[in-house]
Design goal:
The complex is a heterotrimer of chains A (460), B (263) and C (266). Chain A is α+β, with helices and mostly antiparallel strands and 460 residues long. In chain A, a hairpin with a 2-residue loop joins strand 1 and strand 2. Chain A starts with 5 loop residues before the first strand and ends with a strand. Chain B has 263 residues and is mostly helical. The radius of gyration of chain B is 23 Å and the shape is globular. Chain C has a domain of 176 residues: MetI-like fold, CATH 1.10.3720.10. Classes of the chains: A alpha+beta (460), B mainly alpha (263), C mainly alpha (266). Chains A and B meet through loops of A and loops of B.
């Protein structure tokens, strides 16, 4: 497709606040009329990206085009897009009518036309007869409708929505989701929607952009993202999933949970470590155990409305979550199987920690902002730049921060069925990836220790 | 990349005021220091300070003023704390208008208020003098003590009191072990707000004592008025240091917010 | 019983607090030259205050006080509001520095503010008079304006200004149509505050009024009181000031209470 067919082009956008990189080389192309959702946990940069698109913040690097026209430096009031803000941002000193008419009045549109268009916009959001109400007297849902009316009345090319439903209760949110979808269809304009709610993203969008730590993780249709997550972050963030370590033995054959299974993935190479994702609803459970590749004991079984959710410990020591229409009694041994096409194999982002370091003397290396003791490296005088390799399971986390060489905070916790994979932020802003059997909570402050034997140094 | 003007602009709006603050707040304070260390010819000297220490009269006034300020502050706590406590208790005093009534008198010109006190003493045929001075001071500054204490007590989470009761504390223990310790920030704030004006006040002492008793503030004012700027500046600096010292016991921000609240 | 004693204590304290003021108010309705002598009800002091039969200097002092207060309050409100918007957009150390400077006039005793400004004017050879008094008043009034506008900005939905830009308003239009209406209540409170503070001030004024014979109400009362007596017409005047201040304070309080209630409802 020719690039100029895109209504929005974001090219290599980067942005930092002080030392903190909020957006790291983000590119995104949106087609005319699409409903695109930017999805990610809080602090992933999604709101910053939207603000840069709206013109409230400026990118440090990169280029923004709307309909092929560069608007990177254009101030917000000259951009052909309008925003629906998270907390509505209705002008409290104006009534509903004046709020909705705000943009048109600025443009000097004639009174009759303003009247007509305000009525039309309010009708569209189901707020007819509310024109003269004080906006402060409206409920959250009503304020949100007015905010949408105020934005669409200006006939923008693109409507930006910043978590517009986050402040509403569940029932209201579901209703508004359907209405938004309907509105998108009727208006025929492009929607760029920001949310941290994966379900909302799956329900509403034509395409989803999953972001984490300032980087785009995956762009795809809801089905793609759900069924074919490209990495463990996406798999974990979207829907429930069992993520575990595995090995790709060869094309179409993968080993995990102590057994080898047929799968449909090819092109990983032979004997390559991978992440395997199994969706709980894809697991086939049976009272029979014979002839099933995996067996496990039911640990708990909870009725969830439509299905039962069970936690099963396999005979090989993995703890997995499964959903089934039929319950199994706690304590029974059952057989577990999975269709080859439901086994999702993902390339590992990294196999071990790699840190940049500098030798202080032959038995001390400076890395992660502090000095670590290592085994003697021959022919070292100090000052050499080195690369340090540390395996995930060789990083030791201590409860008391004084017990570690450096201090970090636990950030992203991924349960991998037989272990936890944690991301630990150090005080210098570096990440250490840790495999552990201990239970940690998000934001726990830990001391980090690495045994000298486990510090593998390569001179550059 | 060039910064869009819009974003740099609003921040720049503080510049005129920053310049104003420098000229009319920072520079004048600096001038007090400069004058304090100069003689009338503009030469550097410590003589203003040695004169203060050796001059029996001004040193005496200084000590006396601090004494009066301490007594005033103590009396304000003594009378103000119960009032603040009662006002903060919904079961003892329902109306928030009462608090306003305590704050209102502060909005009358301090001289008028003082003259009214003099009138009251005349009316009751009481003599003017030290007693009138202390009464006038307490009368003038009591609201400054009541308000911050009331403020902390009122903001106190009632759950603390209920928790203490739940754990078996008697009403007296609830007060002495929970309420009072938690209200100490309000008291220190009140001490600052009473001590500072009493130590720096002038004019009202003359009116209340028919010119018989002089306070430190008056001495400072007289020196400035009589053209002894350097000595006056040195005395102001001493006053400023005393206030700064007491300020260290208390968070300045806190007082600003309390003062703002009164108004 | 407990409640009775508590109430009694409060009312007793209030009675003592208001006794002097009440005496002034009561004796403003009698003609006696000396305060404390009741010579029968009369409104003569009020009529003589307004008919101009009192000393010309008192009328002048009242006029000066009002003019100074109006100018000082107006300038403080403009300067303080602009400053508040600027400070609100500032970050980090700069914000802290300017906030600290802004607090100084509020924390300093009036006598120090007065003397420091006096030294400023004499060292730069500025003749003291109307202008210096107004400048001095602006100095101690503006921080209070900043203090009353700032909460409005902080409570404001930070997206409001952006929403206006988003809907096509230029920065100037966004300021006029959204930002200023939002901070207006704070500006009005700030103005009233500055006005009353200026009228009430004595300590700063006395050091900066100069020797040209300019008098404000405060300095007039001071000079008058030092002479021993109190011009009888000051009684009705104090009463009027008291009632005016009462009304202004009630307005401010009702406004802020209404604003607080409005927030609660939401």
């Amino acid at each position: 497709m020719n690039e100029s067919n895109f209504i929005i082009e974001l090219k290599h956008i980067s942005k930092s606040f002080g030392d903190k990189v909020v957006l790291d080389d983000v590119s995104l192309f949106v087609e005319q009329g699409e409903f695109v959702t930017i999805l990610g946990p809080s602090g992933c940069g999604k709101t910053t990206l939207l603000r840069i698109l709206a013109g409230f913040g400026m990118a440090d690097e990169g280029e923004i085009r709307i309909e092929g026209k560069e608007i990177t430096d254009t101030p917000p009031h000259l951009r052909p897009l309008n925003t629906v803000f998270q907390r509505y941002a209705l002008f409290p000193h104006l009534n509903v009518y004046d709020n909705v008419a705000f943009g048109l009045k600025l443009k000097g549109v004639k009174k009759d036309e303003i009247d007509e268009r305000v009525n039309k916009a309010l009708k569209m959001v189901g707020m007819t007869d509310y024109e003269w109400r004080d906006v402060n007297s409206l409920s959250g849902g009503q304020q949100q409708r007015v905010a949408i009316a105020r934005a669409i009345i200006n006939r923008p090319k693109v409507l930006l929505l910043d978590e517009p439903l986050a402040a509403l209760d569940l029932k209201m949110r579901k209703d508004m989701q359907m209405e938004l979808k309907q509105m998108h269809k009727t208006l025929g304009i492009t929607f760029v929607y920001v949310t941290h709610d994966q379900e909302e993203a799956l329900t509403l969008s034509d395409r989803i952009v999953v972001m984490n730590e300032g980087k785009v993780q995956q762009i795809g249709t809801p089905t793609d993202i759900y069924n074919e997550p490209v990495n463990s972050f996406v798999a974990d963030f979207i829907g429930e999933s069992n993520i575990m370590n595995g090995t790709m033995i060869k094309d179409k054959l993968v080993s995990f949970m102590g057994n080898e299974c047929e799968c449909v993935d090819v092109g990983f190479g032979e004997n390559v470590p991978v992440d395997v994702v199994l969706r709980p609803e894809d697991l086939i459970l049976s009272a029979k155990t014979e002839g099933f590749p995996f067996q496990g004991t039911v640990q708990s079984c909870i009725f969830k409305g439509v299905h039962y959710e069970m936690i099963i410990t396999t005979t090989t020591g993995y703890e997995i979550i499964a959903q089934n229409y039929k319950p199994f009694e706690v304590g029974t041994l059952i057989g577990i199987d999975i269709e080859p096409s439901n086994i999702q194999v993902m390339k590992k982002e990294r196999l071990f920690n790699t840190f940049e370091g500098e030798m202080i003397d032959s038995t001390h290396v400076k890395m992660l902002g502090d000095e670590f003791v290592c085994n003697a490296v021959p022919n070292v005088e100090g000052g050499e730049k080195v690369t340090v390799k540390v395996d995930f399971d060789k990083v030791d986390l201590q409860d008391n921060k004084e017990d570690g060489t450096i201090v970090g905070s636990v950030h992203f916790i991924l349960y991998k069925c037989d272990r936890y994979h944690l991301t630990v932020h150090t005080e210098d802003g570096e990440n250490i990836y840790v495999d552990t059997h201990d239970v940690w909570d998000d934001c726990d402050i830990v001391g980090v220790r690495i045994d000298p034997d486990d510090i593998q140094i390569t001179l550059e | 990349m060039k910064l869009p003007r819009l974003f740099t602009k609003r921040r720049h709006w503080s510049i005129p005021y920053a310049i104003f603050l420098f000229i009319f707040v920072a520079l004048p304070l600096l001038l007090i220091v400069v004058y304090a260390f100069q003689d009338s010819e503009g030469n550097f000297t410590f003589s203003n300070f040695t004169r203060f220490i050796t001059n029996q009269e001004s040193a005496n006034t200084f000590v006396y003023s601090i004494g009066i300020a301490i007594i005033t502050t103590l009396l304000c706590i003594l009378f103000g704390y119960p009032a603040a406590y009662i006002l903060s208790r919904k079961d003892l005093c329902r109306s928030s208008v009462m608090v306003l009534l305590f704050i209102l008198p502060m909005w009358i010109n301090i001289l008028v208020r003082t003259l009214a006190t003099v009138a009251l003493f005349d009316f009751l045929h009481l003599p003017l003098g030290e007693g009138a001075l202390i009464f006038g001071m307490v009368y003038n500054f009591l609201p400054f003590m009541i308000y911050p204490i009331y403020n902390t007590l009122q903001k106190m989470d009632y759950n603390y009191i209920e928790a203490a009761q739940d754990l078996g504390a008697s009403p007296i223990k609830v007060f002495s072990k929970v309420v009072f310790p938690l209200s100490i920030p309000g008291i220190t704030s009140g001490i600052m707000m009473v001590f500072m004006p009493t130590i720096s006040t002038f004019a009202i002492s003359e009116l209340l004592t028919m010119n018989n008793i002089k306070l430190f503030g008056t001495v400072v004012q007289e020196n400035i008025n009589n053209g002894m700027w350097n000595y006056g500046a040195a005395l102001s600096l001493i006053m400023l240091l005393i206030i700064l010292a007491t300020e260290l016991f208390n968070d300045g921000e806190d007082r600003v917010s309390n003062e703002g609240g009164i108004i | 019983m407990k409640k009775f004693f508590a109430q009694a204590y409060i009312w007793l304290l209030l009675a003592i607090l208001y006794a002097p003021i009440l005496i002034i108010v009561i004796f403003s309705f009698t003609e006696a030259k000396v305060l404390g002598n009741w010579t029968g009800f009369s409104t003569k002091l009020y009529t003589s205050l307004f008919s101009g039969s009192v000393q010309h200097s008192l009328i002048d002092a009242i006029q000066n006080t009002l003019i100074i207060a109006l100018i000082a309050a107006a300038v403080s409100t403009i300067l303080g509001s602009i400053a508040a918007i600027g400070i609100y957009s500032l970050k980090g150390r700069k914000k802290m520095a300017i906030n600290t400077l802004n607090n100084i006039p509020m924390l300093n005793p009036d006598i120090i503010t007065g003397i420091s400004l006096f030294l400023l004017f004499v060292s730069f050879g500025v003749t003291q008079g109307y202008a210096t008094v107004i400048l001095a008043h602006i100095t101690f009034c503006t921080p209070y304006v900043v203090l009353s506008v700032m909460p409005r900005l902080q409570q404001m939905n930070p997206n409001l200004y952006e929403a206006a830009l988003d809907l096509g308003a230029t920065p100037g239009q966004a300021l006029r149509k959204v930002l200023i209406p939002e901070i207006k209540p704070g500006m009005i409170s700030g103005f009233i505050l500055a006005f009353t503070l200026s009228i009430d001030d004595f300590a700063v004024t006395i050091f900066n009024i100069g020797t040209s014979g300019l008098e404000t109400l405060s300095t007039y009362i001071y000079a008058d009181a030092r002479k021993g007596g109190l011009t009888p017409e000051l009684r009705p005047l104090s009463t009027i000031i008291f009632v005016t201040v009462l009304i202004l304070l009630i307005i401010i309080n009702v406004r802020s209470q209404r604003a607080a209630k409005k927030k609660e409802v939401l």
